[in-house]
């Protein structure tokens, strides 16, 4: 990869349920991300959006519905399903092909118009064997958590610490949907949804209009003094049936290795300054940190106990509050990227970490027990 | 254009009513065939692009999960491209950009649909805006019938002529399908059969409409270096174009359909094509409706506006005509929607590599493939050539 792609502008909407309609929410974010660098729709090269029909208020072909709202009228645009970091990567590809010098990436999901998340994720299950027994994402995560606790001796308290940290971090994030000062006891004492998962360890259902504007190197330098560069990306998909997989040795290892290779990162613990991780279930932050090489195998419990991943730690993880605080299902990966960019640019407001952030990691996952993962590395210099 | 990209192999299922096979196995059938065709193995693949129609049509959401194994995609980088009816061509575009960007050398693209397990027309009705427009739409034929009438009225084409031309297209494609081993509907019909078939939505009759098909298609894209290293006869991507329009279909002119016009223009400009009817040797137009196929001929510059019916009746777009269109029988005879655009790409690749068998257009060197989707919204085009 000889050419560079820069992130020149980001925007996001609030996660709490809103009476604003989908079009108004999406249009405002589109307009904001373009106006921040003083360009209009006419200047825009291409658009890649992310959305899923199952998370789109009962309207099929989501991108038909919002096409012109994202500035795409009579433009060459496309759409990714399921994971918004897919859309980011596709937009990077489009710029690197040399055919476009700017690309708008948008993730669109209005949680308040969707059924409960797991009514939707039930539809991931195969219709013959697993759906009749009600397998959905939270149940799959509970199975994974039980295995995690047992194989490595991680404690439920350590998992709850993740929720304490992230919901606390969210107090500094004006876009966060759920936030608060909780104790480990309160987290563990909340309703048991699927043993051992309790309600405060499970992400909510949120609104999420998120936008990232990309540009070729030359164009990026013309549009902003503070471009953040695309450094690396990797994704991977696991087998479908839970019984065919080792739920603690998932495809995130492959996805991370690919992203690190592209970014030239040899030692992620030293070279990654900050990580925004998709943890719809609290324990997953620990497991994903292991898979990302941010700590050793089975050491996720020690990592959270060490305090290193707090906002003021030496390896801040989810200073935004993460997905436990804000969960617009499809948009959450791109939202992690937006938070990473804001931290690198020193524009994260109250949630800005005290250390210097040059290289940051954004992670997205979807599917049962993390069947699919995507990792993006961005940075300056 | 970025670095050169080639198609080095294709695999299709036998499309049709495949009640004897599960949906994952249908996908597997196409994927196994593309590996047989290329003599590659899944280990050689750098990434997988998949796509389909909305989850309501499948009864399964985010199908890349369910088909991870059938697509041989476990452990692979993955993208999931969906743009409604144009999904198939958008999958092809995604695979193209992945390689053109320099970040991969071999990409497997897979499109699939098992329409007989769902309700396609009910699903397509839910694509339309729920408060104002959905009441006027019954599945796909509603909106496309309106478009056809708008077009015919615009140019004052006599009703009988447009009816005859559409019937001519139906007869020709149903004949063509007999020469395509993968085609779904194979029927010998006459012009009178078409004109007297059951009315669906005026002026569209049963034999003017595509079937509900079960089917999948897999295509392997390669960088120039990889294509040469493998020594494969390749179809080269010469141009890609895509355009989308607004959601409310009353807001713009669908008679001169700008997304189709501009998508084709973008692809032609990249391929250096100035006179498509002369320069193209074959076109695989996404033609679920006979009337609409004529409108595409005009939007793609195959003829002037309002001229298509006359030229159709002269045989200009027939198998032995000046610019053969859909010699495979096209979408009219086979429509597993999420796969259909990619089938157009696969057929175009077979034509320019001389591998289309009984429906080969002799000496074809330059081909157009296309797909359409949304609420009369999206058009995507790809140009394939025999030379890099």
Architecture blueprint of SSEs:
The complex is a heterodimer of chains A (381) and B (388).
Chain A lengths: L4 E8 L9 H14 L10 E5 L11 H5 L9 E5 L3 H13 L5 E9 L6 H5 L15 H16 L3 H14 L14 H6 L2 E3 L2 E2 L8 E10 H7 L4 E10 L14 H12 L4 H4 L2 E3 L5 H10 L8 H7 L15 H4 L6 H14 L13 E8 L5 E8 L2
Parallel strand pairs in A: 2-3, 2-4, 9-10
Antiparallel strand pairs in A: 1-7, 1-8, 4-7, 5-6, 8-11, 10-11
Helix pairs in contact in A: 3-14, 6-11, 6-12, 11-12
Chain B lengths: L4 E8 L10 H16 L8 E5 L3 H4 L19 E3 L6 H14 L5 E9 L5 H6 L13 H17 L3 H18 L14 H5 L3 E3 L2 E2 L8 E10 H7 L4 E10 L13 H14 L4 H4 L2 E3 L5 H10 L8 H6 L16 H4 L3 H16 L13 E8 L4 E8 L3
Parallel strand pairs in B: 2-3, 2-4, 9-10
Antiparallel strand pairs in B: 1-7, 1-8, 4-7, 5-6, 8-11, 10-11
What is the mean pLDDT of chain B?
96
Q: Could you state the CATH homologous superfamily of chain B?
A: Thiolase/Chalcone synthase
The gyration radius over C-alpha positions of chain A equals: 19 Å
Q: How are the strands ordered across the major sheet of chain A?
A: 3-2-4-7-1-8-11-10-9
CATH topology tier name of the domain at 5-115 and 205-223 in chain A: Peroxisomal Thiolase, Chain A, domain 1
Give me the strand/helix succession of chain B.
Answer: EHEHEHEHHHHEEEHEHHEHHHHEE
Q: So what's the CATH class of the domain at 5-115 and 205-223 in chain A?
A: Alpha Beta
Structural class of chain B: alpha/beta
Q: Which CATH C-level class of chain B is it?
A: Alpha Beta
What value does the Rg of chain B take, in angstroms?
A: 19 Å
Multimeric status of the protein: heterodimer
- Main sheet makeup of chain B: 9 strands, mixed
Figure out the total of helices of chain B.
14
Rounded mean pLDDT score of chain A: 97
Q: What are the low-pLDDT stretches of chain B, counting only 5+ consecutive residues below 50?
A: none
- Our count of domains of chain B comes out at 1
β-strand number of chain A: 11
Order of helices and strands of chain A: EHEHEHEHHHHEEEHEHHEHHHHEE
């Amino acid at each position: 990869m000889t050419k560079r792609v820069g992130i020149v502008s980001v925007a996001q909407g609030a996660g709490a349920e809103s009476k604003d309609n989908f079009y108004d929410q999406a249009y405002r974010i589109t307009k904001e991300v373009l106006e921040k660098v003083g360009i209009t729709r006419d200047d825009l090269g291409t658009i890649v959006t992310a959305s899923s029909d199952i998370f789109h208020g009962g309207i099929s072909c989501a991108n038909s519905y919002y096409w012109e709202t994202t500035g795409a009228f009579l433009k060459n645009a496309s759409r990714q399903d399921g994971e918004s970091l897919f859309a980011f990567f596709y937009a990077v590809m489009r710029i690197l092909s040399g055919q476009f010098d700017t690309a708008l990436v948008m993730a669109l999901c209005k949680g308040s118009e969707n059924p409960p998340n797991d009514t939707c994720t039930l539809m991931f299950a195969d219709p013959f064997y697993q759906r009749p027994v009600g397998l959905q994402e939270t149940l799959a995560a509970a199975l994974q958590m039980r295995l995690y606790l047992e194989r490595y001796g991680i404690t439920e308290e350590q998992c709850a610490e993740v929720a304490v940290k992230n919901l606390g971090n969210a107090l500094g994030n004006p876009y966060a949907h759920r936030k608060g000062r909780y104790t480990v006891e309160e987290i563990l004492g909340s309703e048991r949804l699927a043993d051992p998962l309790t309600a405060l360890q499970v992400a909510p259902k949120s609104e999420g209009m998120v936008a990232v504007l990309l540009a070729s190197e030359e164009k990026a330098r013309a549009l902003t003094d503070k471009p953040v560069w695309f450094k690396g990306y990797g994704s991977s998909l696991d087998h479908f049936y839970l019984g065919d997989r080792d739920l603690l040795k998932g495809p995130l290892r492959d996805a991370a290795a690919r992203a690190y290779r592209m970014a030239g990162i040899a030692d992620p613990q030293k070279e990654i300054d900050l990580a925004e991780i998709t943890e719809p279930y609290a324990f997953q932050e620990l497991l994903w940190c292991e898979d990302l090489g941010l700590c050793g195998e089975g050491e996720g419990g020690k990592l959270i106990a060490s305090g290193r991943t707090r906002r003021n730690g030496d390896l801040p993880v989810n200073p935004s509050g993460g997905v436990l605080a804000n969960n617009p299902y499809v948009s959450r990966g791109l939202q992690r990227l937006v938070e990473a960019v804001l931290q690198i640019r020193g524009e994260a407001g109250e949630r800005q970490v005290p250390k210097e952030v040059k290289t940051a990691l954004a992670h997205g996952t979807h599917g049962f027990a993390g069947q699919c993962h995507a990792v993006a590395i961005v940075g300056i210099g | 254009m970025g670095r050169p990209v080639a198609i080095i192999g294709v695999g299709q299922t036998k499309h049709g009513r495949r009640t004897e096979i599960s949906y994952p196995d249908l996908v597997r059938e196409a994927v196994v065939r593309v590996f047989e065709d290329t003599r590659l193995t899944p280990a050689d693949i750098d990434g997988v692009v998949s796509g389909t129609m909305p989850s309501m049509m499948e009864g399964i959401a985010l199908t890349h999960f369910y088909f991870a194994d059938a697509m041989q995609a476990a452990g692979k980088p993955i993208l999931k491209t969906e743009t409604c009816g144009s999904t198939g061509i958008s999958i092809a575009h995604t695979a193209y950009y992945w390689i053109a960007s320099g970040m991969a050398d071999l990409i497997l693209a897979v499109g699939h649909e098992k329409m007989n397990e769902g309700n396609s027309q009910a699903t397509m009705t839910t694509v339309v805006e729920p408060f104002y427009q959905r009441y006027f739409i019954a599945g796909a034929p509603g909106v496309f019938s309106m478009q056809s009438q708008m077009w015919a009225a615009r140019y004052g084409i006599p009703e009988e002529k447009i009816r005859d031309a559409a019937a001519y297209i139906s007869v020709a494609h149903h004949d063509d399908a007999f020469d395509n081993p993968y085609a779904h509907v194979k029927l010998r019909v006459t012009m009178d059969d078409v004109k007297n078939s059951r009315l669906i939505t005026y002026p569209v009759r049963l034999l003017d409409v595509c079937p509900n098909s079960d089917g999948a298609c897999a295509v392997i894209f390669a960088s120039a270096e990889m294509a040469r290293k493998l020594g494969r006869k390749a179809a080269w991507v010469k141009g890609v174009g895509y355009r989308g329009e607004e959601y409310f279909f009353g807001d713009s002119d669908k008679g001169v359909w700008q997304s189709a016009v501009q998508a084709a223009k973008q692809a032609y400009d990249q391929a250096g094509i100035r006179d498509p009817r002369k320069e193209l040797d074959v076109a695989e137009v996404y033609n679920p409706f006979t009337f609409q196929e004529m409108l595409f001929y005009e939007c793609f510059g195959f003829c002037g506006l309002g001229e298509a019916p006359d030229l159709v009746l002269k045989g200009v777009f027939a198998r032995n005509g000046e610019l053969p269109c859909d010699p495979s029988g096209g979408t009219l005879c086979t429509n597993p929607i999420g796969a259909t655009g990619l089938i157009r790409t696969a057929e175009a690749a077979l034509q320019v590599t001389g591998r289309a068998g009984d429906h080969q257009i002799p000496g074809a060197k330059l081909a157009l493939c296309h797909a359409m989707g949304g609420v009369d919204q999206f058009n995507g085009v790809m140009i394939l050539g025999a030379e890099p």
